[in-house]
Amino acid sequence: IRDSRVVVDGKEKRILPHRLVFNDGKYYLIGYDEEQAKIDYYRVDLISKLAYSNTKIEISDWNARVLSGVQRAREIEKHPLMLSGTDVYVIFKVVESALDRVIDAFAVKPDKFDVTKETMTVNDYSDKGFHDERIIRVNVTTSEEEAFRWALANADVVELVYPPNLRHKLRRIATPIHKTYVKTTEDKVQLNIDRVFA
User: Fold this and answer.
1) What's 124's DSSP letter?
2) Which of 9, 63, 66, 94 could cross-link 59 (Cys pair, CB 3.0–4.6 Å)?
3) CA 190, 168, 173, 145 torsion: positive or negative?
4) CA nearest 46: which of 29, 32, 33?
5) Longest Cα pair distance anywhere in the chain, in angstroms?
6) Does the reported pTM lie above 0.85?
7) In the beta sheet, which residues pair with residue 30?
8) Backbone Cα Rg of the chain
């Protein structure tokens, strides 16, 4: 198997390519990073100056087996949006009915759940319109960018608790979003109606 050289952040990397995967509208190369001696992934549209290397990358039998399956699946589960960055510890508060969203996104196991005494009012689109649900604290490890985007996409049922810098970033973006959707008189009236029912 021949390996390839890619430039990442101005650095040349030697990667033993294993497989292309499609995730969240983009293609990723999963392969063995010679320098870090680990399996990693790279966004194909960000790869530049691709060239074949004349030398082969030596990997152990164990790494060869890992490349063929389990680690590849775990890498995708750990990074649902396949965004790069250093992994960080993240705490979400999620309403109970939305636990499947966090499980699907981060492959979270039950030992990462902590049932709290808090509740949140949720719009259930029924005749009544709203009901209260228990809140579950969930601990995950993922990149900051993935945590931010996932929390933003699921803001109706999720609160990002930790780390503080991501919480602040969400707060900064939520204010202009709120202003955008309460511009008209109709928007303001509906917001008041929602508050009364909540």
Assistant:
1) -
2) 63
3) negative
4) 29
5) 70
6) no
7) 19, 41
8) 21
Contacts of 46 by beta carbon, 8 Å cutoff, 6+ apart: 8
CA distance 106 to 129: 30
Contact 17, 58 (CB under 8 A): no
Residues, the chain: 198
Q: Which amino acid, 44?
A: V
H or E element, residue 195: helix 185-197
Q: How buried is 14 (Cβ within 10 angstroms: 0-12 exposed, 13-18 middle, 19+ buried)?
A: middle
- Residue-wise pLDDT for 102-144, tens only, equals 877 777 776 778 888 888 777 665 556 677 788 889 888 888 8
Q: Return the closest-CA partner of residue 87 out of 166, 141, 165.
A: 141
User: Which residues lie across from 31 on neighbouring strands?
Assistant: 17, 40
**Contact between residue 41 and residue 29 where contact means Cβ atoms under 8 Å apart:** yes
